[in-house]
UniProtKB/TrEMBL annotation:
Cellular localisation: Cell inner membrane; Cell membrane
Residue intervals passing through the bilayer: 21-38, 58-81, 93-118, 130-147, 168-191, 197-224
Location (main, coarse): membrane
Family affiliation: Belongs to the MscS (TC 1.A.23) family.
Subunit-structure text: Homoheptamer.
GO MF terms held by the record: mechanosensitive monoatomic ion channel activity
Protein name: Small-conductance mechanosensitive channel
Ranges of residues in domain Mechanosensitive ion channel MscS C-terminal: 291-374
Membrane topology per record: Multi-pass membrane protein
Lineage: superkingdom: Bacteria
InterPro entries: LSM_dom_sf, MS_channel_1st, MS_channel_C, MscS_archaea/bacteria_type, MscS_beta-dom_sf, MscS_channel_2nd, MscS_channel_C_sf, MscS_channel_TM-2
Region (Disordered): 395-418
Domain Mechanosensitive ion channel transmembrane helices 2/3: from-to ranges: 176-216
Length: 418
């Protein structure tokens, strides 16, 4: 046995006991090796060796390196973060980097510092392998945390800049990205620890199919919400009509869409129903093409009939916000001469359209009265032939005698005999 001074231990004994001390320390810190503390015989420990001055010196060195590494890493992150905030005026990218660095976990920074401190210790190869796993786990967690923060900042930036028309869909997409990031982080850690993730992913796929079949209606509405957000057939604030529902879109959720009807009540519709039925979106109209008809009496003179179309043209062209298309004498109907008019309202506002139509109607009413042309209405005229008004018995013809028309000819509104 090699000689040693009083109070000192041989080099191999110091290394062995120091490794034992580090093993206990790592286990207490939540570490990487499961120890059977119930079988540990505290009476058999060599307390003189554990209380050896050199071991406590190494422990103090470990603590000093850990604290120094922690403050050094925190200082570097602070300097880089302040520099990024200074450069944020040049572009939002630097601001994103600064915010991401500000969300660095102090616990993970301490874990990095502890790993640096343990690196200076003389550990067995088993502990070296576990330390390498610890480095990967800490780095994976921190990268996932940074990416998660970056996605949240990006989504918030889009929402505040007004570039997001459907915030619900944006939130869903953000959640999907964040779930994918943390899932990839977890799978990477399991793969680094030697777990066979292929079989795990296969089992999760089978379970996912079973869950999807059980909640296919809910998933259908969620996918419909994503489709609405990406395709944008309608947005919040649009006035839509589909089926017997008409109103303004108030909210587009993950499962339902809420519509405020014209009568005031709120109508809740499933997202899948909104996509499977024909929907009219009136908010996106740039203009309205209006077509309407009116009729004048059959006894109107031909010259005045010709003037009616010109009257309609003058009325519409004199109203601001309209474009005249056509006005024609369309057809001979049962009791009127029918005109068809088409014009364009250069606005999507329904109230403006009604104001213009009212002005046109008032102009027609005034113009036709000045021309002494009457609007048509259902009527039946009776013409007496011979110039003598026949005697009419209220009770009908005498009994036993057939009824006669007594020279009375009945004509309809167009003057045709019946």
């Amino acid at each position: 046995m090699p000689s040693c001074r009083k109070g000192e231990l041989p080099g191999s004994a110091v290394t062995e006991k120091r490794t034992t001390l580090f093993s206990y320390l790592i286990a207490l810190l939540g570490g990487f090796h499961a120890m059977n503390w119930t079988e540990l015989n505290w009476q058999e420990l060599d307390w003189q060796t554990l209380l050896n001055e050199s071991l406590w010196t190494n422990l103090a060195l470990l603590l000093a390196v850990t604290l120094a590494s922690y403050w050094l890493l925190r200082g570097i992150l602070g300097i880089v973060g302040r520099r990024m905030r200074t450069l944020a005026a040049r572009g939002r990218f630097y601001g994103f980097i600064a915010e991401m660095l500000a969300h660095t976990s102090r616990l993970l920074v301490f874990a990095f510092s502890l790993l640096i401190g343990l690196k200076v210790a003389e550990l067995s190869p088993r502990w070296e392998d576990m330390l390498s796993h610890g480095w990967f786990i800490a780095l994976a967690f921190q990268l996932a945390l940074w990416l998660d923060t970056g996605i949240r900042l990006w989504m918030d930036s889009l929402a505040h800049n007004g570039r997001v028309r459907n915030p619900v869909t944006t939130a869903i997409i953000g959640i999907i990205f964040r779930v994918l990031i943390w899932a990839m982080m977890l799978l990477s850690i399991l793969a680094n620890l030697g777990v066979n993730i292929t079989a795990m992913v296969a089992s999760l796929g089978i379970g996912g199919i079973a869950i999807a079949l059980a909640v296919q209606t809910v998933l259908g509405d969620i996918l419909a919400s994503l489709s609405i957000g990406m395709d944008k057939p309608f947005e919040v604030g649009d006035f839509v009509v589909f089926g017997d529902v008409a109103g303004t879109i108030e909210h587009i959720g993950m499962k339902t869409t809420r519509i405020r009807s014209l009568s005031g009540e709120q109508i809740v519709c499933a997202n899948s129903d909104m996509l499977t039925r024909t929907l009219h979106n009136y908010k996106r109209m740039d203009s309205r093409r209006i077509q309407f008809k009116f009729g004048i009496a059959y006894n109107t003179q031909v010259e005045k009939v010709r003037e009616v179309a010109a009257l309609v043209r003058r009325i519409i062209q004199g109203i601001e916000g309209t474009r005249f298309d056509r006005a024609h004498f369309l057809s001979f109907d049962e009791s009127q001469l029918t005109f068809e008019v088409v014009y364009i309202v250069l606005s999507a506002d329904y109230n403006r359209y009604m104001d213009i139509q009212q002005e046109i109607n008032l102009g027609l009413l005034q113009g036709l009265r000045e021309m002494q042309v009457r609007f048509a209405f259902p009527m039946r005229s009776i013409e007496f032939v011979g110039g003598v008004l026949p005697q009419v018995t209220v009770g009908g013809p005498p009994s036993g005698k057939p009824a006669a028309n007594n020279g009375v000819v009945q004509r309809d509104g167009r003057g045709q005999r019946q």
